[in-house]
Amino acid sequence: MENLIALLVAAPLLGAAVLLCGGRRLDAVGHWIGTALASASFVIGAILFADMLGKDEEHRAVGQHLFSWIPVEGFQADIGFQLDQLSMTFVLLITGVGSLIHVYSIGYMEHDERRRRFFGYLNLFLAAMLLLVLADNYLLLYVGWEGVGLASYLLIGFWQHKPSAATAAKKAFLVNRVGDMGLSIAIMLMFTTFGTFAFGPVLEATGETGEGKLTAIGLMLLLAACGKSAQVPLQSWLGDAMEGPTPVSALIHAATMVTAGVYLIVRSGEIFNAAPDAQLVTTVVGAVTLLFGAIVGCAKDDIKKALAGSTMSQIGYMILAAGLGPIGYVFAIMHLVTHGFFKAGLFLGAGSVMHGMNDEVDMRKYGGLRKYMPVTFVTFGLGYLAIIGFPGLSGFFSKDKIIEAAFAKGGTEGWILGGVALLGAAITAFYMTRVMLMTFFGEERWRNQPTPSPAESDVEPAAEHRGTHAEPHPHESPKSMTIPMIVLAFGSVFAGGFFGIGDRFLHWLEPVTEHAHGHSPLSATTVTLSTMVVLVIGVGLAYLQYGRRPVPVVAPRGSLLTRAARRDLLQDDFNHVVLVRGGEHLTRSLVYVDHTLVDGVVNGTAASMGGLSGRLRKLQNGYARSYAVSMFGGAAILIAATLLMRAV
Amino acid sequence: MTAQLAAHSTSLAAYSTSTGEAFQFWVLGTVAVIGALCTVFMKKSVHSALCLAGTMIILAVFYLANGAYFLGIVQVVVYTGAIMMLFLFVVMLVGVTAADSLTETIKGQRWLALLCGLGFGILLCAGIGNASLNEFNGLAQANAGGNVEGLATLIFTKYVFAFEITGALLITAAVGAMVLTHRERTERAKTQREMAEERVRKNVQLPPLPAPGVYARHNAVDIPGLLPDGTPSELTVIKTLRDRGQIRDVSDEALKDLKALEQRSGERLGRGDRAEEAAK
Amino acid sequence: MNPVNYLYLAALLFTIGATGVLIRRNAIVVFMCIELMLNACNLAFVTFSRMHGNLDGQIIAFFTMVVAAAEVVVGLAIIVSLFRSRHSASVDDASLMKL
């Protein structure tokens, strides 16, 4: 049964190879091949899951060693897979949501002439992501890590004819590179510290290692997680990544890839457990990001960017939980899974809305769509209720646990983190209600629109082959798109309850991540009640703002915070001033040094060599006798040397 | 150190050769060195060749003295007899009378050469002086069965491959020399008649070229004939000598001789007296 | 007399020959000087042969002579063809390797 693990990765990899190498011949069937192989991977995953459930808790983790990758003395790198409960959870999430989104994409990308390539990239992403979560050592994980980075780059820039998409892809790639650097440094540190990369030996050896080294490794891993999971300070790429097709945003930039950072931290739990400083930084990063993302989400008018802010914020919750140590790991993963369902559902819903609205993304030009898109409205609404933590739905169970765990951290830290998490819940309720109201309720602001200016059509040229920019005719999306949304909505509703009630998920994951019950200063009921209160406050404020009053089509100027949040809280300006300007100055001074010092040395050497050669050249006068003198002198010197050596 | 020196002196005594050989060495050795120096410093290459031949004959004598009877004979026959004669042939071909200028044209070359030579020689002598040459067996045993037989035994047993290879080398050298010097005629040589007809057609120098000078006291072919005014005409010397620059200009001498001849004949005929009288 | 004197004589002749190669410009004389050097070596070989009491040194001298004969043939052929083409036997005239 273990031999099937490699197939999990091989199936989508084969799909990617076939689709990307197959050429135009496969244009007609490419999407079916891609979807079939993604689903095959899901079926294999399900078989393995069933097999795993049949075993004892102790023997559930299985591995498959494929071959020795780099067998060098003192440096052993293997290609091997490890399938335990944590990996299994991810495999099911990735292949499950991935397959649904493949199905969705069949409809969504129907009119795109490069659909085959799109599916090839999606399959490549699945393969890389599965490799990431199945690897049994950090080096192979790094391969998958880079692989998902590549797939993300290719898919964000899928509409590469749009300068904004190309730039966004480049930005995502570059920012991720900073994180990847962290991961590679962490791996190097591991190698020098433990002499191996394999999860087992590395994590077992943490007990005997100095805290300083572990803290360094932990911080580097956190940097990697920040890059991949769009956490402060490497968060700036996620908003722009929404330039990619919506299924990509749902799969990669909401459900799976961006959660790789959480996986990395939970997987490396032993390292973090032994390095409290790294844990503290992790919780701080998570807390800051969760507020940051939520505030950005409140101000965005672009539906996808609002959701992207929300993603950032929700991953902040997960990172926060992961930073709490054993009391939070399970809840981080649980929230990750439920978030995978409802956020993917929300993105697919947003895609469905855009599909029906001529690819319009500005929520100020939506309104009252519930009558025209009932299925989308219901599924989106269920996702909305799940994310704000409406009692009984997925988000309620997972987010509540995280808030509880944050308080359980204890001391001042616990109060601050718990408070931040509660505040985040309120803001989440606010911005999600805002999205909901602006999109599906209120007056129909899309009627009697002026024709968009050419500049705007530049931003969304994909719309050119979707119809004209005349007044949109909102309509429900085809079945291939609505069915995945319905499935995901089921997940959004029931996953939390299924996992949370009776601590089922906790028991499932406990053998891998270990779990400790924290002692919260507040009782669970208090936390739940206060969550309900802030939830009501958030929804109420949003209703007052966007439900009672008409929403202006042109965005008002807004307060200072709103304006800052619209600009992603000045993150790009910060990067520009500090990194770009600083980089430019550094480059300029380096160029100066290069011109004066380096070139000076080089040119000086060259000039002196030239002068020397000019003099030496005179020795080359072409007269055989002259050369003979040199030979004769050389012979004399040889004799002298021989004599000297004998004398010594 | 002293012990070493003592050992050295005793070995000297033990290895000494006969007084006759010593006398021969010092006399002939000096001549050989002078011959070598003359080879280097003689202006004319033919002289150099002769000096070298002399040195080689002395070396042949030394070979004989050293018990290398076969080599001594071969040295005379092959080296002095064949190789040096080959040199002389080439010297003749290039121009036997041509004298080299010994002034140096490459700056510093001479001094560098002398310096290197001096240093090299001193170092070499120092090396020989340093070497532990405390072995002197003599060839009495090795030459017991005859020197030639001994050499033959070695050549045809131990060194047979080297010997065969030198045979191949000699063949190759002979072929190479032929290839280098052989010139293939691409056209038929002109007959005398054709040359005469061509001269008539060109109409530059119809009669035969003037003969060289006729002061037949030595090789007269390189002496140009004199024109009526007493100046020499290079046209009278054959082209090969002209190209080599081996023209001996004797015009001054000849004019002087002419004047003396006239005077003498005048005196004999009494013209001089008449002339003196006329002057009075 | 010590037979080592033959070696000193050989060294002297070799040095004179080498210096001659460096000083003279006439290719024929240069060639003669090379022959002088070879002969000096031969003298040394013959002396060594006597000192060691075996004939191997003489064999080497013999081979040197054979090779020298071959070398002279080719060398003189080169000088003759050089003279034909340049009307000069000066080694300095053949300085084509100059920059």
UniProtKB/TrEMBL annotation, chain C:
GO terms, molecular function: NADH dehydrogenase (quinone) (non-electrogenic) activity; quinone binding
Q: Where are the transmembrane segments?
A: 6-23, 28-48, 60-83
Cellular component terms (Gene Ontology): NADH dehydrogenase complex; plasma membrane
Task: Provide the alphabetized UniProt keywords.
Answer: Cell membrane, Membrane, NAD, Oxidoreductase, Quinone, Translocase, Transmembrane, Transmembrane helix, Transport, Ubiquinone
Its domain of life?
Answer: Bacteria
List localization entries: Cell membrane; Membrane
Database matches in InterPro entries: NADH_UbQ_OxRdtase_chain4L/K, NUOK/Mnh_C1-like
NCBIfam families per record: PRK05715.1-2 (NF004320), PRK05715.1-3 (NF004321), PRK05715.1-5 (NF004323)
Q: What is this protein called?
A: NADH-quinone oxidoreductase subunit K
